[in-house]
Write a sequence for this structure.
């Protein structure tokens, strides 16, 4: 499946979940229509209201230990989710332009085999993340049903209203309403922010791989043609290199747009995954009353947080790794076999290759808040640091 089809279908789903039209054309839908604006405002008002009630519950609410822990976790997580969604929507103009660039750049170099791998990669990662998130949410529902069976009330999301003692019909209806809102919010979060960011990172990674294969192909073509017609081989190599260098320049510009559009999202996820994971793991370690389902819901929440962070950082790290291979592909194109008299006027192949190699040797590294490098190493560091902090707090609580 081509990038055009992948991104357009994705933008259709984003439009459906109420975040607006991120496609660079209007054929998906007009998000400026009054009825869609009402839908958009109403949806985010519902999400925002629930998040505010969670924050009040965390700060002012009087709940049992397990509900208080869930309350704090959801209040922090959903606040970050709201910030991420608002940030992405505020960059809609930039993202629409980015979608156009992602579709058009490298289009003529695309290989069917690489396109299939890219689509499979996106599909598998998206399904795995979707299942992890919703299985975690389902565990919260099962825990709520277990409490009902034991004579308590049903609850998944803990909000300031209703209070813990309130078991009236209106309170029950509101708790069920919050559960429905949670599942809706998760869908909007996945499609509009998390998966959308992941898709752009994977696509850009494959753009770099496509460009690298292109340089390798023109090198092979040059070697074959050089045996038959040296002048034509040199001319074709010069033309091919010029085209490849222009695409590389475009990719460098697009990466800056990706950083502007999604860099803040990745940075927030970095802190959310590590901070929330410590809090959640401590709930398991400290609490002696957690049921199996209770532990399961927390573990899958932690897995979902780190799985998303892994998707972000590992794909960002893969961009750095693949871009580091470009310099070799450019250098070994066969420029040293190009005789001076055969080179087109104004196109000194050796000089062009030298400049391109210098540019390609600068690693393409995305950074959180322009400080923390988003790479494989950072992902491993976050996991180690999270466990170290958890072990420290757990040891201190054990001594107390």
């Amino acid at each position: 499946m081509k990038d055009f089809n992948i991104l357009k279908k994705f933008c259709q789903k984003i439009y459906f979940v109420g975040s607006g039209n991120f496609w660079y054309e209007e054929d998906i839908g007009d998000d400026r229509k009054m009825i869609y604006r009402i839908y958009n405002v109403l949806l985010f008002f519902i999400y925002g209201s629930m998040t505010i009630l969670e924050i009040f519950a965390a700060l002012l609410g009087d709940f049992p230990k397990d509900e208080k822990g869930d309350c704090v976790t959801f209040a922090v997580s959903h606040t970050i989710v709201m910030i991420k969604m608002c940030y992405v929507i505020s960059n809609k103009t930039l993202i629409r332009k980015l979608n156009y660039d992602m579709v058009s750049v490298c289009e003529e170099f695309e290989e069917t085999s690489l396109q299939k791998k890219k689509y499979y990669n996106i599909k598998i990662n998206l399904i795995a993340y979707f299942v992890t998130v919703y299985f975690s949410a389902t565990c919260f529902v099962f825990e709520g049903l277990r409490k009902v069976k034991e004579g308590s009330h049903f609850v998944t999301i803990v909000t300031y209203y209703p209070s813990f003692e309130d078991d009236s019909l209106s309170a029950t209806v509101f708790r069920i309403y919050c559960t429905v809102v949670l599942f809706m919010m998760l869908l909007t979060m996945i499609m509009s922010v998390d998966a959308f960011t992941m898709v752009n990172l994977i696509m850009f990674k494959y753009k770099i791989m496509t460009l690298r294969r292109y340089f390798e192909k023109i090198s092979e073509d040059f070697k074959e043609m050089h045996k038959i017609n040296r002048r034509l081989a040199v001319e074709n190599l010069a033309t091919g290199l010029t085209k490849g260098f222009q695409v590389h320049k475009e990719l460098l510009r697009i990466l800056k747009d990706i950083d502007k559009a999604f860099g803040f999202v990745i940075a927030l996820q970095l802190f959310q995954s590590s901070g929330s994971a410590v809090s959640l793991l401590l709930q398991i370690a400290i609490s002696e009353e957690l049921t199996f389902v209770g532990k399961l819901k927390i573990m899958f929440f932690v897995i979902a947080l780190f799985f998303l962070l892994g998707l972000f950082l590992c794909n960002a790290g893969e961009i750095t790794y693949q871009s580091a291979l470009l310099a070799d592909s450019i250098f070994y194109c066969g420029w040293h076999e190009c005789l001076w008299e055969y080179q087109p006027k104004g196109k000194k192949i050796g000089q062009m290759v030298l400049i391109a190699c210098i540019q390609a040797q600068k690693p393409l590294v995305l950074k959180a808040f322009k400080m923390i490098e988003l790479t494989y190493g950072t992902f491993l560091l976050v996991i180690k640091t999270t466990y170290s902090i958890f072990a420290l707090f757990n040891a201190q609580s054990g001594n107390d």
The two ends are 58 Å apart (CA to CA). Residues 169-226 form the longest helix (58 residues).
